[in-house]
Amino acid sequence: MSPRTLRAGVIGLGMMGRHHARVLRSVDGVELVGLADALGDPHGIANGTPVVRSVDELIALGIDIAVVAVPTALHEEIGLVLAAAGVHALIEKPVAVDERAAARLVEAFGSAGLVGAVGHIERYNPALRALRTRLDAGELGDVFQIATRRQGPFPARIADVGVVKDLATHDIDATAWIARSPYVHVGALACTKSGRPHEDLVTVTGQLADGTVTSHLVNWLTPFKERLIIVTGERGAFVADTLHADLTFHENGTVATAWDQVAAFRGVAEGASTRFAIEKREPLLVEHEAFRDAVLGRGDDIVTLAEGARTVAVAEAIIRSARTRTAVALAA
Q: pTM for this structure?
């Protein structure tokens, strides 16, 4: 496909939809031509852009691409309508409410020859992109463990899923992406303390196909925000703070010990720490540029629908593990 201006629409004008609309207005080669929400434009973000009430009306405006930012339960329905109309779509995460719905989206966009992407925005965080580059370059040596902590207060905007599908899917996708290896085992414990029907705290242990051990602590019950990914390996540990887009490397110490009993234990000592200077572009803008390039046939730096479906499968395994208090194996 030759470069051209893509006509874009946004479906759902909640918090994420409003951010998508804002960023789309600044993406080169993209023109925001329509917004859709059953409630209209209560937050006043249209700024002259037509606002319609349904996805069919949005399609009628002549769009090439669409962002789906409605509640998760509606992702499949709207995605299938867009695929049938020949519209490429960026669907917010999680891609669908369950594995079967995700599989139907994968099939619909694949058979239509359309680009379908999932909004796992952490992949576009500067700290994680720098981390993955350094891991690929072998700077850590063998990777032993990836641990994440994603904690904070309850977001009133979330009503249809619990922390596993809303928050933990960030860590599931980012961990498998960083390691370039899928999950093959998970075990989890969860609880509900806020009076809602969904879990609001979960702790997960897992293992990837390459042997990397993982752990994830996720909740909506902490009165401060924390977004950390810690990768421990042969030469030390990387700490990516995605809240502030910082990446730090803590290297193993090199001072030998003369104490025989201690020296016999193959542990490590504390070494120097380095916080890297990295370019910090807004992740949502980078995500939209990658989606645009994929639609135009000049890049493939997107989270595919198949990858999004895999993340949903892992999330469902975590929920199943927490409910049954048993470990769950997944196919690689």
A: 0.92
**70 vs 93: CA distance, rounded Å:** 10
pLDDT for 120-168, tens place per residue?
Answer: 999 999 999 999 999 999 999 999 999 999 999 987 766 678 999 999 9
Query: Position 47: which residue type?
Result: N
Is 120 in contact with 93 (CB distance < 8 Å)? yes
Q: Which two tokens stand for residue 34?
A: 């329509």
Q: How far is CA 308 from its chain centroid?
A: 9
Starting from the edge strand earliest in sequence, which strands make up the sheet with 270-275, in order?
270-275, 246-252, 236-241, 226-233, 143-151, 213-219, 201-208, 183-191, 328-329
Helix, strand, coil in percent for the chain, rounding step 5:
35, 25, 40
**What confidence tens digit (pLDDT) does each residue in 238-258 have?**
999 999 999 999 999 865 555
Q: How far is CA 258 from the centre of its chain?
A: 47
Among candidates 76, 170, 88, 74, which has minimal Cα distance to 121? 170
Q: What distance in Å separates the CA atoms of residue 68 and residue 61, rounded to the nearest whole number?
A: 16
Neighbours of 4 (CB within 10 A): 9
